[in-house]
Amino acid sequence: MQQSDNQPAAIDVVLWQYPKNGSDGERWLRALSPNERERAATYRFERDRTSFIAGRYLLRQLLSAHTETQPDKIVLLADAYGKLTVEGRDRLQFNLSNADGLVAVAITSECERLGTDCERADAEIEAAALESYCSLDERRWLDQMPAGERPRAAVALWTVKESHLKALGVGLRRDPRSVAFSWQDGIPVLVQSGEPERQWHHRLLESGSQHVVALAVRCRSVAPGIRVLTFQDESMPSP
Fold it and tell me: Cα(63)–Cα(231) distance, rounded to whole angstroms?
């Protein structure tokens, strides 16, 4: 169904604080494809392996509900940049991010572009890293903040930028400084992108955990309707 320009696009962002001890890892693996199981086995550290498995498990559970297909039977295709799509479901847009015990999956059938990113709110970003991803105006904005607020603001800015680059399908292959944001009433607003802005919407979402979660959406409609849901394993997501 085509989305009307004057109706908000419906987007679900599903969050899952999975058990980091990987106690259910073998059960999660059964929902993955053979290729994903092989890839999981290549991870050197158990933490990274559990994070990958949990992410693909949640993604396949949600795609299963949208496509009425068994999770392990869903065929995921990757383009040259690694962006995933479901075979035969071109309109279904989704994006996955995970960070230290949290998985976030954004999913919709009513938008042109969709990206999400999550990071630990207390992540430390060195000055050199700030220079590598911030525009001059963004660095000035951070410098003017109270010292106690600056670290979290830097993480939020990074998370918003990465969600946008993921929505474009290029990730960090593109210079983060080519995309810049300002803040209006707590909402990030795109001010520099090097491409037609069209209808971009960016949000920082309440995660209910020690994480910052960002969403980037491009759609023709008015500001999208965003539902943030919590995933309960072996059940449908619930508000």
Answer: 13
DSSP state of 132: H
Query: pLDDT digits over 41-63, tens only?
Result: 999 999 999 999 999 999 999 99
Q: CA–CA separation, 219 vs 225, rounded Å?
A: 11
Contacts of 137 (CB under 8 A, 6+ apart): 180, 182, 191
Specify which residues 115 forms β-bridges with.
216
Q: Three-state DSSP class for 195?
A: coil
Enumerate the β-bridge partners of residue 213: 118, 205
d(CA 228, CA 239): 7
Element (H, E) at 96: strand 93-99
Taking the CB of residue 108, how many other CB atoms lie within 10 A of it? 24
pTM of the model: 0.90
Chain centroid, CA 26 distance in Å? 25
* Angle between helix 46-67 and 34-41 (nearest 10): 160
What tens digit of pLDDT does each residue of 169-211 get? Answer: 887 778 888 899 998 888 899 987 666 566 899 999 988 778 9
Backbone angles phi, psi at 79, to 5 degrees: -85, -170
**How many Å from the N-terminal Cα to the C-terminal Cα in the chain?**
25
Distance CA 105, CA 148 (A): 30
- Are the CB atoms for 200 and 8 separated by under 8 Å? no
Paired tokens of 180: 């810049």
Residue 117: which region, alpha, beta or left (left: phi > 0; alpha: psi -120 to 50)? beta
Percentage of the residues of the chain whose pLDDT score is greater than 90:
63
